[in-house]
Write a structure and sequence with these properties.
The protein is about 15% helix and about 40% strand. By secondary structure, it is mainly β. The radius of gyration is 16 Å and the shape is globular.
Length: about 160
């Protein structure tokens, strides 16, 4: 087998690991932003905890340091409009929520009103992991908002989104 064939086969196999599609939202004072994420996984029962992989160059990564809070919005399978909206990426100064319905909250990061569910998270650790950082977060609160199935994504090539 040629080296190129082996790399192609590895990429194809890696891409078959399914992942959810989420919108991570964060707030700093009156500023708020959001980003599309797919590498999220529960990693602990006690305490309830998850991991989020994020490229350090993403603007929102600056708001995901030790002690920072963020919200994981779990998308419903039909919410392709949210994928298109948040998939384009936002600078921290951009209005990431223009035209997006949000749930009113006293504190915390924005919650998408039409999300399937949300989890409020607090960063407890951030570890470099290749070209991404692994953000480890405790779950502080959460709720179901809608009814349906979560959005799942399977890539054809595991070497890029």
């Amino acid at each position: 087998m040629k080296a190129g064939d082996a790399e192609h086969r590895l990429a194809a196999a890696l891409g078959r690991i399914p992942s959810g599609i989420f919108v991570v939202t964060a707030r700093r004072g009156s500023a708020a932003t959001g980003m599309l994420a797919s590498w999220v996984q529960q990693c602990s029962f006690q305490p309830p905890r998850l991991t989020l992989a994020v490229k350090p160059q993403r603007p929102v990564a600056a708001w995901l340091s030790l002690g920072d809070r963020f919200t994981l919005n779990i998308l419903e399978a039909s919410q392709t409009d949210m994928v298109a909206h948040f998939g384009k990426g936002f600078a921290l100064a951009d209005d990431a929520f223009h035209g997006v319905n949000l749930r009113e909250r006293d504190d915390g990061a924005p919650v998408l009103a039409e999300a399937l569910a949300f989890l409020d998270c607090r960063v407890v650790q951030r570890v470099p992991a290749g070209d991404h950082d692994l953000v480890i977060a405790d779950l502080e609160a959460g709720d179901l908002i809608g009814d349906g199935q979560p959005m799942i994504h399977v890539r054809k090539n595991g070497m890029h989104y």
